Amino acid sequence: MPWEYEPRSFPIGFSEGEPTKFFTPDFYLPDDDLFIEITTMNQKLVTKKNKKVRQLKKYHPDVKCKIFYQRDYMHLVVKYGLEEPDHLDEVVAPTRMPGQPEIVRLEDRGERLTG
């Protein structure tokens, strides 16, 4: 499966119409037109990344982005036989962000592309 590491940044914060804050998802899967953000169990980082993905959806509703939490990653590792499941007792089942993403291209909105 083709993938790209941090191929693009999206403006998610603005001051007087100019971008001041950007979000760069970890991976892009071109075959699925999907960005992936990986996070850890550190609650401070999880909260921060959840906020960035919400801002991404607010300003770029056409961009599909999913967050993979540590438990999601661990389930994939076990599923594909990369690690034994004996330490996964405390890891709960994977979750997904609710709702369908909407797609709006920056070019269609007359905005400058970054990245």
Write the layout of secondary structure elements.
Blueprint: E1 4-5, E2 10-15, E3 18-23, E4 27-29, E5 34-38, H1 43-59, E6 65-68, H2 70-79
Quick structural summary:
By secondary structure, the chain is of the alpha+beta class. The protein is built from two helices and six strands. The radius of gyration is 16 Å and the shape is globular.
Number of strands: 6
Mean of the pLDDT scores?
80
Unreliable sequence segments = none
Question: What's the overall geometry?
Answer: globular
Total number of distinct structural domains: 1
Class by helix and strand content?
Answer: alpha+beta
Which bin fits the share of residues in helices?
Answer: 10-25%
The helix/strand order is EEEEEHEH
Description:
There is one protein chain. This protein is of the alpha+beta class and 115 residues long. It has one domain. It is 23% helix and 23% strand. It contains 2 helices and 6 strands, in the order βββββαβα. It has helices spanning 43-59, 70-79, and strands at 4-5, 10-15, 18-23, 27-29, 34-38, 65-68. The strands form 2 sheets. It has a 4-stranded mixed β-sheet. Strands 2-3 form a two-stranded antiparallel ribbon.
Highlighted features:
115 residues; alpha+beta; 4-stranded mixed beta sheet; two-stranded antiparallel ribbon
